[in-house]
Amino acid sequence: MINDNNNIEQNNPNNKERNLSDVFRELQDIRYSQKVTQTPKKTKIPKPKKHKKNENYSFEMDINSVAKPKKAFKLPNILVISAIFVLAVIALFPKNAFLKESFAKEDIEEVTELTSTNFEINRRALNMQKIISENSSFEKVKEQVTEEREIEYEVNSQANPSLPRGEQIVLQEGIAGKENVSLVKTFENGEFIEELILSKEVIQEPVPQILDVGTSDFLAKLKVHIGDTVYLTSNTILRTSPDASSEEVADIKQSLDVKLLELPNEEWCKVSFDTIEGYLPTKNLTSAYVTPTIVEKNRVQRILLKVNIDMELNKSSGLSLKDYKKIFTGLSKDTNKIFENNAEVFYNMDKKYNINGIFLASMAIHESAWGTSEIAKDKKNLFGYGAYDATPYESSYEFEDYKDGIELVAKVLVKYYLNPSGTKIYDGETASAWYYNGPTLSGVNVRYASDEDWHTKVYSYMEMLYNRLK
Fold it and tell me: Are 114 and 26 in contact (CB under 8 A)?
């Protein structure tokens, strides 16, 4: 034992600084030297007894099972080696390994094999980095800063009965203010978690936003605003004030348009009818949004509004080809369909010579008795043009078709009866105005017909034809 101890000391004189790996090497060197000097004996390592679960057990190593050197170790050396061995066992085995039966056997075999030539790797080594990371405390950092921040502006709303309900108008834009804020911010592991405001200093005061909020159900229903055009759903009296007993200003026909000016309440509104202003009940109004067909009806009504016996005839009627076809289709007295078949001819004269085509057609109806006269049938002359009272048939002009006669009369009326002298007319010509007495029916009547009531008879046909647009 003394010699072995001396060998250990000689192999590593710095005993106090040895680690476990050095100790194990030294033990192995001892065993190797013993095998060289002695005849090795086959020894069996006793297997550890199985223990019941949750039962503490101890491990004793059979000293006799290990080859002994010739000389015995001294007691101090034995204690040192035993202590080192125990420390090695504790380092290699988890603490709770001694509590489980299935794990105990495996660990005892590993410890026993430590005395053999080869060392085994501890597969259950502790991950110290992980343990440190999981148990380290979070880092909190606080810093004091001063920041410039915005001050939100207020939104002030006020009711406006002249706006559709739900609609808003910005009267004044809001402007955010500015302030310097001194505060302490707290961060945990680099992430912001809270702040403590110490003080605030206003740099610029915010400007509030001002809104007008609509409250009118009438405007919302019609989808219109003050200043828009609305239409009459029935004949309505325009009055001086929003009161049914107030003075009458005008009688406005159905489908005519007026312009909204004011909305004193939901029952009455102030409007402008052309140049006349007054008040109407809101219940008698509609809009193009609510009644899309009202726009076309208004157009026709505006045309009819200008129809009167004193209307100027040296202007286009403003009617479309569709209007002409509507007017002349299905006339009960047009038995031979002369006017229906020539509706487009009257429309073309209207546009080409700047003459009212309805007036031209009304003259033809009156002069030809709806195209039934002999001159109209035989000579295709709807106006009796050229006829004299003494010999009307013989003196009247004859045309190849109705279109030629209609166009000739249109040109004669424009050049001699309807326009003042020098007026530019068709084909670069100017009006001669030989028989001009004004651009009206009564003015034409003076020199065109000997019948003093001719203009009223012609106008009756004009009125009838215009009303077919309704």
Answer: no
